[in-house]
Amino acid sequence: MTDHIKIHQTDGTWVVRAAGAVLAESKQALELVEGDYPSVIYFPRDDIAMAFLDASDHSSSCPHKGTASYFNIVTKSGTLENAAWSYEAPKDAVAAIAGHLAFYTDRVTVEEL
Questions:
Q1: pTM of the model
Q2: Are 25 and 39 in contact (CB under 8 A)?
């Protein structure tokens, strides 16, 4: 694995909320810690209410993780643009996050119950 990236299974149950709605709840979330950046919780796609997410045309590239695809979150009060992302085919060193999505915490609430 890339030396500055660590991925491990979280303890407890993690949730994602947007505009009062629960978008995800998981006991199988992963925590990714990359260098000095704040840790990021990745949720298994099966634990996310994907009906609230629409694929975006936006993408980005990370030299350590690969190419990220983004999702808009559709709520009653509007659309949160590019509020979630996923590495559909991550690099081998971070393969554990395949099939998972992460969320920008300045747009939604991500918390442990």
A1: 0.94
A2: no
